[in-house]
Specification:
Number of helices: 5
Shape: globular
Low-confidence stretches: 93-104
Largest sheet: 2 strands, antiparallel
Strand order of the largest sheet: 1-2
Structural class: mainly alpha
Number of strands: 2
Strand content: 5-15%
Radius of gyration: 15 Å
């Protein structure tokens, strides 16, 4: 995304620890968007791809991208489309099977 260098600069200005920022630090940046908390919570869930409660530089850029998507009047996807998953995180993420879906037995 063409905005990535801008997001990276913001990320590095937030003093990441071991290459990541905490949820509290990320939230402080995300609330500047003035989006409702419910929307920001969905963005967080989509952005924290490895579910460690922290955002790395790519997850943060993704969160900022999703905020901009919402601010431009579009809806946020309920699941992250594959083209938005940062390459560095793709190998570690396989969608968990939904427990309510069962294959019909013959």
């Amino acid at each position: 995304a063409k905005e990535k260098p801008k997001y990276d600069k913001i990320f590095h200005s937030l003093n990441p620890q071991n290459g990541k920022i905490s949820g509290a630090v990320a939230k402080a940046e995300m609330v500047k968007s003035k989006l409702p908390n419910s929307v920001l919570a969905r963005i967080w869930k989509l952005s924290d791809i490895d579910h460690d409660g922290l955002l790395d530089v790519n997850e943060f850029a993704l969160a900022m991208h999703l905020i901009n998507v919402k601010l431009s009047g579009h809806d946020i996807p309920s699941q992250l489309p594959p083209h938005l998953i940062p390459p560095s995180l793709k190998h570690g993420t396989s969608p968990l099977p939904h427990t309510h879906e069962r294959t019909p037995s013959p």
